[in-house]
Amino acid sequence: MRGTLTEKILKKHLVSGELVPGSEIALRMDQTLTQDATGTMAYLEYEAMGTGRVKTELSVAYVDHNTLQSGFENADDHRYIQSCAARYGLYYSRPGNGICHQVHLERFGIPGKTLIGSDSHTPTAGGIGMLAFGAGGLDVAVAMGGGEYRITCPKVTGVRLSGRLPDWVSAKDVILYLLSVETVKGGVGRVYEYFGDGVSALTVPERATITNMGAELGATSSIFPSDAVTAEFLAFQQRPEAFTPLSADSDACYDRIIDIDLSSLTCLAACPHSPDAVKPVSELKGIKVDQVCIGSCTNSSLFDISLAAEILSGRTIADNVSLTVSPGSRQVLVAAAKSGALGKLISAGARVLESACGPCIGMGQSPCSGGVSLRTFNRNFRGRSGTADAQVYLVSPAVAAVSAITGYITDPASFGKMPRVAPAESIEINDNMIIPPLSPEEAERVTVVRGPNIFPVPTGKPLETVSDTQCILKVGDNITTDHIMPAGAKILPYRSNIPYLSRFCFAAVDPDFAARAVEKGGGIIVGGVNYGQGSSREHAALVPLYLGVKAVVAVSFARIHLANLINAGIAPLTFADPADYDSVSLGDACRLSFAEDLSSAVLTVGEKEITLVTGYTDRQKKILLAGGLLAFTGGR
What we know:
The protein is an alpha/beta fold. It has a 7-stranded mixed barrel with strand order 21-22-23-24-27-26-25. The chain is globular and about 70 Å long.
């Protein structure tokens, strides 16, 4: 990675270790962010650590996920998070102020800084030249307390961009193309670093769309250089002092290079039910559409909203289509209202939702039974929309808006000339919905408020080096954290109540799992390739922990979930021979035996001994032997 922008930022923030891909490194984090679906647990863990006031340069608590208040639970969580922010020295972005990644890009992002967030799409900030990581809440809590963030040193894949995007083709199509090449597991252990002449043709919001969906590649992070385009964006946000020019050396050494000619791309769509199931929109022509949703942290910038408005201007959406629009921030919402874009959307029949994640996290606007939903979002996992049999496609705002008019999936190239969106000369900057940190003296007088739905963090037990157990669940490839711990309006309000939440664990895969885990007193889970992809939600580790899961044996793991399992005190293990996956069945009695130094393990099923790979660092071994990261740090 010599001479890459990634290497430069890593080197500046390196606390320990060597920048050798595959080895463990510890990094200093400049900034942190949380959102409310993961934040409540992160602050419970932070309190358990007893660290006091945050030690970072800047930490922000956002409320953007659980904003549908159909009961007291979400409101209580918001109040708890706000009181924690006041007590421990964080900024607090109030409900309605916007989606964490959009607001952070606008108001807090600084090129060259490091950021860790309890949301897998935190690398959105790579669009402004930050090196940003999605992680579990406990890793974020450690960073808030001044601790380092430990990761496997990534390889750096260079993505060389050339040319300019044709009319109707967007940044969404760039990342969808890359997903078609790399797949949802191709980025594990990698940072995707963008460079080349084509970079200057992309705005910061367009770059952020690309780095946002780098999470769908399984990547450690994604990053663009900080250049004249970045300086223009920061000046527009009235933060010119935050700009620093940053780029890779001209002779930077990448692990490998992917070339993308922007001028050769066409409009693409990710088909159900994976972000890498990509096809040209032209091949999907004629599929009837029931719902169109524009917004989310991927495509909710002022340009995205304005382009959709211009396409819809003077027209009415098709009779069979329900159209929703979610501006990414209150800043975007106000600007769209003042420019007339909002009025055009409403006149065309759009339903304008609040500036929040909303439908993307299954928080309302579930499609009809078997419905086709076109969404400008980043994930289309089965059931994530709230409707189990919905067919969700991921598309650009242009494809979404045109299809909303025709009522069918439509290639915008057949729609006529692309409308031009004049860039705004200025924007209203109003941070009155962001509450700044109190002084240390004022903070000492704050009482943290806990509602009746807020329960303590479940804690693990020290690892048993030999245990007789059983396989209580076997699943296939690409199991997501949505499979393990579903989202949606009915379940998300219980993110701070692990006992209640446990009833829904793996409900979409095996409705009997939770009851069986309780009946059997726990056991092990067996999984296939890329187990735990998707969201950073550590609940996908904490809930199985609560249900007595001792270990997860898989062919391979997604990066964040692997770390979350270890932090919770659950041992992740991989098959030395992937073919041994077929040797374990649901209900099998087995013995799990670790080598004395935890360098390897053996799973004995009947007469067969299956060799397992641990791959733990010395620190991870200590965490597991202690019963999880909280126990290891003395937090309980």
